[in-house]
């Protein structure tokens, strides 16, 4: 069977390309759709259907633009209520793609419209299942997202539906089927996903905690809900964009083509409520940046951190980008619904400096320097890694102020005492430092290299010990 997984690492997202006899189906496309159109041209094929496994929360799908550009029909599973023309399929309905067939299997639980698509080859043999967020490799979709959109859909109700879907619809299928999920490790749509992005269903039945054969519904609900963190704030907004529709990607790119001189950039920042978003490498931001700008580097998990920390997808943005990467930045912002880029700094930060404009720096020291200061400042160390990282291992006395929820911790940072901020490797600590400085908190020092570098010093650390090993 000719099926390709198109994986985008920064979002841990998988789209799928299925082609047979000149006809193509695309599953869960990203916002920018030209790559799918180009891929079909290579096969001299026409895109016939765009299958959506559900209304996504972590990204804005490209289904509408792809429909407009190709004439393909959008397909959702049962109960979906999109605000545009689409086929809302029935459970068990079959679609033909050349000599292949795609069978709709309604699998509510992650969301109520969540659907798995069974792929059947030209010989009538079942090949695999495109599972969306119903079944991942090593995990299943979190059942707490839909309640952010429809309050009565509690996470317990959705988890109950998910249990039934997995037991009654997925697990009875052949062990030989290949599982093609929508996400891999790093996505916020699950909590225990594998780095592998495909597997056989048979192996998942053996290794995936949620598919244990003798698991009761009560055990399943408890296991699936245990350890869920608060989902990123932009998720419900992405859901609504996927349901209601959105501005075309081409329009978003065109609108962002607004080159601003340093003085015009400063005027725009002062006259609007735009956030100045600096996406250069953290080492460049440390050496110099526009005052009150926020750093989120393009070479990290950029879109996910923008969504988690800026939250409001309608927020106007002004960009400071590396040379030649402006369109990439706008594209990656649009994937998570941030379509309101109102301009960018022409010539980048160097032009700002050359114009003699005011700029700020970030106080950053090496782990070796920090080790000499630690004893006198051990009560003023802030670790912005996630809770699991902190629990596993941390600097003695450090306080865990996770970057994801930094705004909740603002009252914990001292007002009149220098404090030290670190993460795992230096990316998140610079993000955190930029946010704190934008809020007028300047008495901070960032520890370059983060915990990886700190571990190479003699600074005392606390390591997690599994309770079962305690005497």
Automatic annotation (TrEMBL):
<protein>
    <submittedName>
        <fullName>MBL fold metallo-hydrolase</fullName>
    </submittedName>
</protein>
<dbReference type="Pfam" id="PF00581">
    <property type="entry name" value="Rhodanese"/>
</dbReference>
<dbReference type="InterPro" id="IPR001279">
    <property type="entry name" value="Metallo-B-lactamas"/>
</dbReference>
<dbReference type="InterPro" id="IPR036873">
    <property type="entry name" value="Rhodanese-like_dom_sf"/>
</dbReference>
<keyword id="KW-0479">Metal-binding</keyword>
<dbReference type="InterPro" id="IPR001763">
    <property type="entry name" value="Rhodanese-like_dom"/>
</dbReference>
<feature type="domain" description="Rhodanese">
    <location>
        <begin position="270"/>
        <end position="361"/>
    </location>
</feature>
<dbReference type="Pfam" id="PF00753">
    <property type="entry name" value="Lactamase_B"/>
</dbReference>
<dbReference type="InterPro" id="IPR051682">
    <property type="entry name" value="Mito_Persulfide_Diox"/>
</dbReference>
<feature type="domain" description="Rhodanese">
    <location>
        <begin position="375"/>
        <end position="463"/>
    </location>
</feature>
<dbReference type="InterPro" id="IPR036866">
    <property type="entry name" value="RibonucZ/Hydroxyglut_hydro"/>
</dbReference>
<dbReference type="InterPro" id="IPR044528">
    <property type="entry name" value="POD-like_MBL-fold"/>
</dbReference>
């Amino acid at each position: 069977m000719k099926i390709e997984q198109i994986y985008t690492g920064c979002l841990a997202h998988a789209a799928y390309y299925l082609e047979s006899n000149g006809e193509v189906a695309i599953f869960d496309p990203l916002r920018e759709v030209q790559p799918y159109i180009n891929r079909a041209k290579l096969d001299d094929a026409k895109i016939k259907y765009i299958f959506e496994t559900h209304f996504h929360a972590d990204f804005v799908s490209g289904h509408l633009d792809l429909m407009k550009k190709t004439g393909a029909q959008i397909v959702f599973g049962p109960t979906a209520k999109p605000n545009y023309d689409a086929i809302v399929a029935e459970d068990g309905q079959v679609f033909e793609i050349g000599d292949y067939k795609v069978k709709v299997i309604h699998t509510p639980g992650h969301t109520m419209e969540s659907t798995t698509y069974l792929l059947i080859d030209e010989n009538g043999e079942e090949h695999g299942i495109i599972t969306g967020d119903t079944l991942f490799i090593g995990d299943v979709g979190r059942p707490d997202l839909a309640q952010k959109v429809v309050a009565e859909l509690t996470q317990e109700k959705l988890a109950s539906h998910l249990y039934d879907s997995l037991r009654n619809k997925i697990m009875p299928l052949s062990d030989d089927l290949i599982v093609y999920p929508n996400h891999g490790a790093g996505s916020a749509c699950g909590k225990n996903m594998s780095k592998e992005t495909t597997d056989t269903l048979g192996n998942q039945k053996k290794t995936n905690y949620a598919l244990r054969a003798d698991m009761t519904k009560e055990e399943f609900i408890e296991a699936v809900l245990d350890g869920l963190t608060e989902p990123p704030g932009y998720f419900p907004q992405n859901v609504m964009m996927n349901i209601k529709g959105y501005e075309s990607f081409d329009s978003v790119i065109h609108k962002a083509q607004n080159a601003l001189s340093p003085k015009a950039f400063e005027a725009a920042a002062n006259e609007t409520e735009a956030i100045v978003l600096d996406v250069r490498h953290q080492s460049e931001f440390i050496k110099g940046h526009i005052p009150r700008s926020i750093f989120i580097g393009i070479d990290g998990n950029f879109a996910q951190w923008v969504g988690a920390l800026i939250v409001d997808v309608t927020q106007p943005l002004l960009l400071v980008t590396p040379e030649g990467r402006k369109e990439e930045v706008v594209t990656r912002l649009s994937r998570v619904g941030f379509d309101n880029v109102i301009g960018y700094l022409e010539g980048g930060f160097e032009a700002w400096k050359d114009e003699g404009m005011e700029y700020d720096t970030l106080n950053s020291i090496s782990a070796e320097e920090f080790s000499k200061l630690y004893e006198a400042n051990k009560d003023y160390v802030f670790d912005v890694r996630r809770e699991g990282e902190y629990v596993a291992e941390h600097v003695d006395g450090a306080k865990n102020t996770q970057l994801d929820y930094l705004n909740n911790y603002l009252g914990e940072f001292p007002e009149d005492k220098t404090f030290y901020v670190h993460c795992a490797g230096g990316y998140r600590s610079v993000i955190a430092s930029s946010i704190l400085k934008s809020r007028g908190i300047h008495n901070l020092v960032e520890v370059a290299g983060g915990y990886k570098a700190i571990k190479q010093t003699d600074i005392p650390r606390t390591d997690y010990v599994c309770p079962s090993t305690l005497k």
